[in-house]
């Protein structure tokens, strides 16, 4: 078994374990609900590029440590960034998510807790999602002055439609496990008396019994039949930051108060 640990923060790691045809990627920063820093996004993208180089790998599992999946990007880190640095951080985020989205292998997200913001979108980059009763999903970017670019919006709208996507952003509400299942955001709901990792491993083994050629063909066909997912990164038209509202949104989050937004969109 090959284990790769990319430690980019004192308490944050991206771990890759490869064994018996499986590549298991773990986001490990439980103290901060597996919030991902810019350095961790960079390492996640690098691990995503590394996985296909192992010819023995058949299935990829993406999971979070403890009872979390990923609470999104580290907002306290954003509070220390300039606008240009924040733009670059969002670019790194998109690179990591798109790398997993384009993997030429079946990918499964094991969601045993909140998948929020960029963590929510990261889970949608996987082909299948396994959830538990602890799963929560949402994209509460309106509280932060984040203006979702086309790539992020499309990934959500492709699964739940435009109106429901707008509802999530307009209200900032989080979907519970039952709603996630009803909307097709979760393919499998694990019973409370069963471990999500064990269930996901059994599912992965079932996938590994199928023809790799058949799996890749359907993955390519599904991608082909979607409108193009590739947009140029353009800070003028596809920015993820409102220059007025974003700094205030992040400050209010760190200071634990309601934001006072003044942007006009």
From TrEMBL:
Q: Which UniProt keywords apply?
A: Lyase
Q: Return the InterPro entries for the record.
A: ClpP/crotonase-like_dom_sf (IPR029045), Enoyl-CoA_hyd/isom_CS (IPR018376), Enoyl-CoA_hydra/iso (IPR001753), Enoyl-CoA_hydra_C (IPR014748)
What molecular function does GO assign, one term?
A: lyase activity
Positions the record marks as coiled coil are none
Pfam families registered for this protein in UniProt: ECH_1
Query: Does the keyword Magnesium belong to this entry?
Result: no
Task: Identify its protein family.
Answer: Belongs to the enoyl-CoA hydratase/isomerase family.
This protein is called 3-hydroxybutyryl-CoA dehydratase
């Amino acid at each position: 078994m090959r284990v790769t640990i990319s430690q980019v923060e004192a308490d944050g790691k991206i771990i890759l374990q490869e064994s018996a045809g499986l590549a298991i990627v773990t986001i490990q920063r439980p103290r901060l609900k597996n919030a991902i820093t810019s350095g961790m996004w960079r390492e996640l993208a690098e691990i995503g590029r590394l996985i296909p180089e192992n010819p023995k790998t058949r299935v990829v599992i993406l999971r979070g440590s403890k009872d979390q999946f990923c609470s999104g990007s580290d907002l306290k880190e954003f509070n220390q960034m300039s606008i240009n640095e924040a733009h670059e951080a969002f670019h790194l985020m998109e690179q990591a998510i798109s790398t997993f989205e384009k993997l030429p292998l079946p990918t499964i997200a094991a969601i045993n807790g909140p998948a929020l913001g960029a963590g929510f979108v990261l889970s949608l980059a996987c082909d299948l999602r396994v959830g538990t009763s602890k799963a929560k999903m949402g994209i509460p970017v309106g509280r932060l002055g984040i203006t979702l670019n086309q790539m992020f919006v499309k990934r959500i709208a492709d699964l739940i439609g435009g109106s429901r996507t707008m509802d999530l952003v307009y209200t900032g509400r989080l979907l519970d496990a039952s709603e996630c299942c009803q909307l097709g955001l979760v393919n499998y709901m694990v019973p409370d008396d069963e471990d999500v990792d064990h269930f996901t491993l059994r599912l992965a083994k079932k996938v590994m019994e199928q023809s790799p050629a058949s799996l890749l063909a359907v993955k390519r066909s599904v991608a082909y039949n979607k409108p193009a997912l590739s947009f140029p990164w353009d800070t003028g038209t596809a920015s993820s930051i409102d220059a007025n509202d974003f700094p205030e949104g992040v400050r209010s989050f760190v200071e634990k108060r309601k934001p006072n937004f003044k942007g006009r969109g």
